[in-house]
Write a structure and sequence with these properties.
Distance between the termini: 26 Å
Radius of gyration: 26 Å
Bound molecules: adenosine-5'-triphosphate, magnesium ion
CATH class of the largest domain: Alpha Beta
Helix content: 40-55%
Structural class: alpha/beta
CATH topology of the largest domain: Rossmann fold
Largest sheet: 10 strands, mixed
Number of domains: 3
Shape: globular
Number of strands: 15
Strand content: 15-25%
Oligomer: single chain
CATH architecture of the largest domain: 3-Layer(aba) Sandwich
């Protein structure tokens, strides 16, 4: 963690979201709040983990400010529309604002365009088909880390992924939409996919062989494989989810190329069904971010940001640990929010115990109750020597004797109860060298400069977004360069209203 004053002394009059974007562009990483010397950042190329219970300020103090101040593309996940509502007005002045809503129920503000994503589109290349099938199966079967699992569970998961990969690839090659894939899988009908693979790739291609092998297994076994695959695609039985696979489809490469924003909203109640879709989509955007970094020679000052609010619920990426360690060097920063490490353990198993060291920076908000999380953080604070004196009395023939003994004892610098309580309005931060410090939180609805840049009510929303008629009826033309959208303040400079000074 570095606390840096922008241009020397912290000057309350000089700051603005635009300047924060400039500061972020210079590679200071994730914005944390106010440190002793001004804006505090995670540090260059460091992802950040946020731990805090409900209502502790994860969204308002960390996610919203980082979405607003990110100089590059942002993919923001949430189980609520709070991030979308707070930031869409500002982000629309920088690039396209898109929403992937697999329920089809979200009411979008003007200027935010619905965008689709389909596993079929992601499976155009064979290696990508393998990846998307694997990510969906592992997420759906609750085994996000490591191998697909052992025993019967592992067998069915492995077989289902082996079936879905060639089926999705066949659909991609033959132009069959997700609706068609669902029909094949639910009817246990592999013939059309096998024909498509043979026609496009030949009889001796790996994908053709894999599917042919599955279709020649004995009927009971084969039925189990189809049923497992059907369960993985269960979300697509809702019309909303199926509609979310239709055009206009997200172009991950075009999305990563500019300061665009993609909001992924899926309610917590349906996360079990929807998480496989979201995870597979995130994996495709991640690959696009890495491709962009390799094209531009790595760090270009505007990394793609994954702002993963409610990460364990809606975006339990199987390879979150490698995303966090490899991503920053390849132009992708992650801000991941969890209630505590027990929530991570339920998703990522024992790998969760290493989260505080895997993430370059951890932000801890007050109110955590999970004792293992608290113990781990308290242990990082180290011990300090405390002198203690004990006084004893002995009654003897000569009367009462007083004796004093001095000793030095070791006490935690931050005892468990101090970490648990936290400090109201502050966050405890752990940096990559396990140093701890306090940073003042800057809730977007309350603290400058954010409060001037987010809608605070109905009227304010209209101020920021402009009259509904201006929102533009054209679909986003995903993949096109973003048009310069109107200035929310009505001026000609699309970023003008971001300058809050
Ligand atoms: N726009 C707003 N106006 C006023 N208060 C707000 C606003 N947004 C959030 N708050 C308040 O800020 C506090 C933190 O809310 P926030 O949503 O950031 O917490 P959270 O940690 O993200 O919670 P959860 O895990 O439930 O999403 C709450 O007390 C909330 O009522
Ligand atoms: Mg929240």
């Amino acid at each position: 963690m570095t606390a840096e004053a922008h241009g020397g002394e912290w000057d309350a009059r000089a700051g603005s979201v635009a300047r924060l974007q400039g500061a972020a562009r210079t590679g200071r990483g994730i914005y944390l709040g106010l440190g002793a010397r001004g804006w505090a950042w995670s540090g260059a190329q460091r992802s950040t983990l946020v731990l805090g219970p409900s209502r502790s300020g994860k969204t308002s103090s960390l996610v919203v400010p980082n979405v607003l101040s990110a100089p590059g593309a942002v993919l923001a996940t949430s189980t609520k529309p709070d991030v979308l509502r707070a930031t869409a007005g500002a982000r629309a002045s920088m690039g396209w604002c898109l929403a992937f809503d697999p329920t089809g129920e979200l009411e979008l503000p003007p200027g935010v365009h619905r965008v689709g994503w389909s596993p079929v589109g992601a499976a155009r290349e064979w290696h990508a088909a393998l990846e998307v099938a694997d990510a969906m199966v592992r997420t759906a079967r609750g085994r996000p880390t490591g191998a697909v699992g052992a025993g019967a569970e592992g067998h069915w998961s492995e077989r289902a992924a082996a079936l879905l990969a060639p089926v999705l690839h066949a659909a991609a090659l033959d132009g069959v939409p997700m609706r068609g894939v669902l029909r094949w899988v639910d009817r246990h009908d592999g013939a059309p996919a096998l024909d498509a693979l043979a026609a496009h790739l030949g009889d001796d291609a790996v994908a053709t062989d894999l599917l042919a092998g599955i279709l020649s297994t004995e009927p009971r076994e084969q039925s189990g494989i189809w049923s497992t695959a059907s369960g993985v695609l269960a979300a697509y039985r809702s019309p909303g989810a199926l509609a979310s696979t239709e055009a206009p489809l997200l172009d991950p490469d075009a999305f990563c190329a500019g300061a665009h924003t993609l909001y992924v909203c899926a309610p917590a109640a349906r996360q079990q069904l929807l998480a496989p879709l979201v995870v597979a989509m995130l994996a495709e955007v991640r690959d696009a971010a890495y491709r962009r970094a390799s094209r531009t020679g790595g760090f270009d000052g505007a990394p793609v940001l994954f702002a993963l609010d409610e990460v364990a619920n809606i975006a339990p990426l199987p390879d979150l640990p490698s995303l966090v360690t490899e991503g920053p060097g390849q132009g992708l920063l992650t801000l991941a929010c969890l209630q505590d490490l027990s929530q991570a353990r339920a998703r990522w198993g024992t790998e969760a115990d290493a989260f505080v060291s895997i993430f370059g920076t951890t932000v801890v908000l007050g109110g955590i109750a999970d004792i293992r999380t608290l113990e781990a953080l308290s242990a990082l604070s180290g011990d300090r020597e405390v002198r203690s004196r004990s006084v004893g009395f002995t009654d003897g023939a000569g009367g009462r004797q007083v004796s004093a003994t001095d000793a030095t004892v070791l006490r935690r610098r931050l005892p468990v109860d101090v970490v648990a309580r936290g400090r109201l309005g502050w966050a405890l931060c752990v940096d990559a060298r396990n140093r701890l410090g306090w940073v003042r939180l800057t809730p977007a609805h309350d603290a400058w400069p954010w409060r001037d840049c987010i809608p605070t009510g109905r009227a304010r929303t209209q101020d920021l977004l402009g009259p509904p008629g201006l929102s533009g009826s054209a679909r986003p033309g995903v993949g096109r360069a973003p048009g310069r959208t109107r200035s929310a303040g009505g001026g000609t400079d699309p970023r003008g209203w971001l300058s809050c000074s």
